[in-house]
Write a structure and sequence with these properties.
- The protein has 444 residues and is α+β, with helices and mostly antiparallel strands.
- The protein is built from seven helices and 25 strands.
- Helix 1 runs parallel beside helix 7.
- The longest helix has 17 residues.
- The chain is elongated, with a radius of gyration of 25 Å.
- The termini are far apart.
- The relative contact order is 0.09.
């Protein structure tokens, strides 16, 4: 959770928000406004240059300077927080949240629909507020949410009693009937088609249990066609912070309208050397923090290199990461003489790495096939080398391909044609690409 980081500033009183002076303070180098309402303090942090529409992130926990908040501010989003921790999403908390939202979106002129961040116990506030205000929530992102109140074994008894006491309940009431349980709001959120992303680490005293997230997913899906994604990390795995942060930023920025789609065949605004490939059923490609985000399409989505394609001997290096899905997150098409081929990482259900195609046999059905289980939300270095009559490839610094193709039929599968002679695509998977380099090897 974000730790508290509140600085002295001009005090505003909600909901009228009349300033006592014109002075403002600084939060991590950004101008901010401090306020108090019915004894609950909070802060509104302003970006140096607000983006169009003035989107904002509303956090249930106190704001902390980190890679997520810094990036959102750099992208022109405002950040806001009001301290309602002790109320655990009860009716008083929802009433104060309504007044706070009215002040931020009305008097401060920010967007009507903020992105909501409700980690752990903060889910009690954010999921309930969104369910009560479905037209005012852009999306919900939550790490290890309390979909049901934790049992006595999972949290200190005093804290647990405080949760129930805040809702006027005695003792340890049945969690399944707990009125503020986010699980009980899944149908309302799904019916309103509010995008929801949950990150469950699978360990810790407040981790969401599998049955609760399964039930939430079911109720959400039955109620509507909204976007729901659950990221599950094994209990023994330390959360890959960089990858999760990139995924969270992409989810938030897309749902507040900051990321705009680039039409097929046009260059990406921040990476003009790449154009959006013409795949049927493809979705969007975005640039975020110097990374290409290639969204999950009905089948394939990808980009085509619009610069000079390598000739002769060459090497290509890049880093790739799967954000969601279960198939290849990097299908690298590269030139070979007067045709092209593809290095597929990891296809056919998310395990096969190899070259498509050799003598009309794709990667799964020729001798280059290797099988590896690669994790989501982790950057993998990839290197492809074409020298003389050989194709070589390394994934995660392990050489997996070394094949002589000087007397072989080399070509691509027809589906990859929109990326010829050089490009990258994904198959029903969202992938990220960064640090793409072409290195001529004329000396070899």
């Amino acid at each position: 959770m974000f730790a508290a980081c509140l600085v002295a500033a001009t005090v505003f009183i909600l909901p009228t928000a009349r300033a006592e002076s014109d002075a403002t303070a600084s939060w991590n180098g950004n101008a901010c406004v401090s306020f108090e309402y019915q004894g609950h303090k909070g802060i509104l942090v302003k970006p140096e240059h607000a983006t169009e529409g003035k989107p904002w992130l509303w956090s249930a926990a106190a704001l902390e300077p980190n890679s997520m908040t810094r990036t959102l501010l750099d992208k022109g989003l405002h950040l806001a927080w009001i301290d309602l921790d002790s109320l655990y999403g009860n009716t008083d908390a929802l009433a104060i949240a309504d007044a706070f939202h009215a002040w931020v979106s009305g008097e401060q002129g920010l967007a009507e629909k903020p992105a909501l961040l409700g980690n752990e116990a903060g889910a009690l506030l954010m999921f309930n507020w969104a369910a009560n205000n479905p037209s005012r929530a852009a999306c919900i992102f939550s790490m290890e949410p309390w979909l049901l109140p934790p049992s006595g074994e999972e949290i200190e008894s005093t804290a647990l009693q405080n949760v129930y006491a805040a809702h006027g309940l005695e003792g340890k009431a049945d969690p399944a009937t707990f009125p503020a349980a986010p699980l009980n709001q899944a149908g309302r959120l799904g019916g309103a088609e509010i995008p929801v992303m949950l990150v469950c680490a699978g360990s810790g005293t407040v981790a969401a249990n599998r049955s609760a997230t399964d039930q939430f997913h079911k109720e959400y899906r039955l109620a509507g066609k909204g976007f729901f994604e659950r990221i599950e990390l094994p209990a023994e795995t330390v959360a890959p912070e960089e990858g999760i942060t990139l995924h969270a930023l992409y989810f938030i920025l897309e749902n507040v309208g900051h990321l705009q789609a680039t039409p097929t065949g046009q260059a990406l605004p921040d990476m003009p050397e790449w154009t959006v490939a013409d795949f049927a059923g493809s979705t969007d490609v975005h640039v975020l923090d110097k990374a290409l985000i290639i969204e999950c399409g009905n089948e394939m989505t990808g980009v085509r290199w619009s610069g000079q394609a390598p000739e002769g001997d060459y090497e290509i290096t890049l880093e790739a990461m799967r954000l969601s899905g279960n198939d290849f997150f990097c299908g690298l098409t590269a030139p070979w003489r007067d045709t092209a081929f593809s290095l597929v990482v990891v296809g056919w259900g998310g395990t096969c790495i190899g070259i498509s195609s050799l003598d009309w046999a794709d990667a799964y059905n020729n001798e280059t096939a290797k099988f590896r289980g690669l994790l989501s939300h982790r950057w993998y270095p990839i290197k492809l080398r074409v020298t003389g009559g050989r194709i070589q490839a390394w994934v995660d610094n392990e050489q997996l391909v070394d094949v002589d193709v000087s007397n072989r039929e080399v070509d691509i599968r027809w589906e990859m044609a929109p990326t010829k002679p050089l490009g990258i695509a994904t198959w029903r998977t969202t992938g990220a690409i960064r640090n793409f380099k072409i290195i001529p090897l004329a000396g070899e």
